[in-house]
Structure formats: C-alpha cells, structure tokens
C-alpha cells in the first residue's frame, strides 16, 4: 500500500500504474514527477490514500506551464497529510494553485516551494508562512501568499499555532488581508531583522494585527537583529503569553534585562525555552554577563517578587554539555529554594533553522517521516 516513484519522465505506463493501484495506495511519494503528468490524472482514483508527498528539489526545472491544476486528489476521502513543493505558481502570472486538495479534511499540509521560497505549513495546530524575496520592491502590503480555493476571506478557527517567516525584515503581509486566525495560541516569528523604522506604516499594521491574537500563550522569536524598543512592542502584543521561546542567543541578555526592568511585560510568564545553535556561548566573559542578567531576572520573577509572573520552568536546547553545567550553576539555588524545574534537551537538529526542524518541534507531526525525508531532499 506504499508507492515511491523517483526521477520519472512522462511514460504512459506511469499513468497506468497510478490508476491501477490508486484504490489500495495509502502512502504515495512522487519525486521529480512532472506536474503536467499528474494534471492528466482524473479525480476519484485514490480512495485509500492517507499521505501524499510531492518533491521537486531545487536545481531541477520542472515548470508547470500548462496552467491545468492537479485534481486527482481532490476527492480522496482518506487523505489527511499532504507535503508538496509545487502548490504555488512557478510563473510570474497568478494562475490557479497547481494542486486542488480537500482542504477541510486535511490535518497536515506542508508546502515547500524551492523556486519562490514560499512556504506554507499547517495542521489543525500549525500554520507557517515564509515569504520569498520576489515581492514588488519593498511593498509588504501585497505578499506572495496565495490562499487555497475558497471565499475571498477565510477564518481559520482550527489553526492554533501560527509561524511567520520573512527573508529579511519582519513586516505586515498581505496574507492578513485574506485570512484571520482567531484561535492562535502559539506564535512563532522568524526574520533576520525587525528594522521597523524603515517600514513605519507596515510596523504599525503588523503590531495591530498581532494584537488581535488575543489567545497567544506561547511566543517564539528568531530575530537576530532587533532593538529593545521593538522587543518591547512585540511583548506588549502578547499579554497572556506564559511561555517565551528564544532561538538567538544574542538576544538573551537584552530580553532578560527588559523583563526584569519592566514587570508589566509578559505578566504571566512562567516558562523560558532557550535554544542554542551549534555556535552557542563559548566566551566566558559573555556567559558571565548573560548569567548575571539571567540571575537578576529569576530574582525578579520568582516566588512572590512579581504579582503575577512566576518563572517555574526553564528548558535549554543545545548540543553543548558544558553549557548545561554552566546553566545548572546559575539556577541551582532557585531550583532548591523556589522549586524551579530545569530541563536540558540534547539537540540533534541542524544549526540553521529549517522547516524540518519546525516539524520536529511540533508533536502533531510525529509519524510523518516521509515528509521529513522529503524536506531533507529539498534542502540538500
């Protein structure tokens, strides 16, 4: 009930194979199969299909120029998980999406378009969008996001985790003009920089939109270049957040200082997740400075020091065991006197952020190994 097809051209025998096995297939992986071939398949062939993966690695030019969508999977009643790198148009024109899917029944959807660098990833708990560099100038009011077929404006009540990625600066995107996410509880923001002074109106619209996510309890930041004022503005948009996840260790000291000095920010914070990449903190002076800031934050946000915020749990992801001992030395007395729980997670992930890494962090993606393998092929 599994079928893997790799590096195929357009033989008629492939069509016959897919049509003859469609009723029994539960998992289908298509690697370098031209979209024009899939577009010729009729709907209603894949009654048992549960997982579909389509992979077209970068460096291979499989352009879908016919404009005909792939409709073979639109009536697959058992289909729940789909991973594609071809949902968005490859040409400059705004054609219909290349795949027509039964969106209302999917539990997992991953789109990785290596050509336009657009990524859409969602489960009932997860939606992620990354914008490429091919936007019109610096106009962030019209992103490259293309919604699935449906009404002009969608309300996605099922999405509780939203991850937004930007190739450079974080700013408002046109996706917000097409989709609303009233149930978001976890918000992940990834960008090289904030630089909101450059995009004044976009900054205001972006922050205003974030403030509509009134249920956010988990806030994750991967923004290497962001000033203190911008950090404070982000924290102000998530007053109910109880978990803060930081991926860039260069932010840690400043974040600790801000949260110590301004108790009104993240007033319900109780969990800190610190994610160190391969480089980590190696300089002893740097770590001493960070450790002192961390210690002062814990003093300000533990026991009865803060009226609402009480840090109870600290989790550190890293490959560096020496760093584990350093952290234990900093928080030992808080573990003993205040009952803080300290967790160490040995990270086997890549140094660079990747969609495969987000999938690893999302427990609802467990058991979808073929999609992870596909991402590894695409990113290789």
UniProtKB/TrEMBL annotation:
Identification of the protein by name: F-box domain-containing protein
Native organism taxonomy: Eukaryota, Fungi, Dikarya, Basidiomycota, Agaricomycotina
């Amino acid at each position: 009930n599994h079928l893997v097809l790799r590096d195929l051209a357009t033989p008629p025998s492939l069509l016959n194979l897919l049509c003859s096995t469609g009723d029994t297939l539960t998992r289908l992986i298509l690697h370098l199969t031209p979209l024009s071939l899939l577009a010729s398949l009729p709907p209603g062939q894949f009654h048992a299909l549960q997982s579909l993966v389509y992979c077209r690695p970068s460096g291979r030019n499989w352009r879908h120029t016919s404009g005909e969508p792939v409709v073979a999977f639109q009536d697959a009643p058992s289909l729940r998980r789909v991973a594609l790198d071809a949902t968005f148009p490859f040409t400059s024109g705004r054609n219909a999406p290349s795949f027509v899917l039964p969106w209302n029944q999917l539990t997992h959807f991953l789109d990785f378009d290596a050509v336009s660098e657009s990524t859409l990833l969602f489960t009932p708990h997860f939606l992620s969008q990354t914008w490429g560099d091919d936007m019109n100038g610096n106009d962030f009011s019209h992103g490259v996001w293309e919604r699935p077929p449906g009404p002009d404006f969608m309300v996605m009540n099922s999405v509780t985790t939203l991850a937004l990625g930007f190739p450079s600066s974080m700013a408002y995107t046109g996706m917000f003009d097409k989709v609303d996410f009233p149930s978001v509880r976890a918000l992940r923001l990834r960008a090289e920089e904030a630089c909101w002074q450059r995009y004044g109106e976009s900054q205001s619209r972006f922050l205003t939109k974030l403030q509509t996510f009134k249920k956010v309890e988990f806030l994750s930041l991967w923004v290497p270049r962001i000033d203190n004022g911008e950090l404070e503005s982000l924290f102000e948009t998530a007053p109910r957040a109880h978990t803060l996840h930081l991926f860039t260790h260069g932010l840690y000291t400043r974040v600790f200082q801000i949260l110590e000095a301004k108790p009104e920010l993240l007033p319900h914070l109780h969990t800190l997740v610190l994610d160190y990449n391969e480089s980590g903190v190696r300089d002893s002076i740097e770590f001493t400075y960070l450790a002192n800031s961390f210690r002062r934050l814990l003093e300000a946000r533990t026991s009865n020091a803060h009226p609402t915020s009480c840090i109870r749990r600290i989790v550190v992801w890293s490959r560096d065991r020496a760093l584990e001992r350093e952290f234990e030395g900093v928080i030992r007395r808080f573990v003993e006197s205040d009952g803080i729980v300290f967790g160490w997670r040995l990270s086997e992930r890549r140094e660079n952020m990747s969609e495969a890494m987000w999938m690893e962090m999302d427990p609802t993606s467990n058991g979808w190994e073929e999609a992870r393998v596909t991402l590894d092929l695409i990113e290789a």
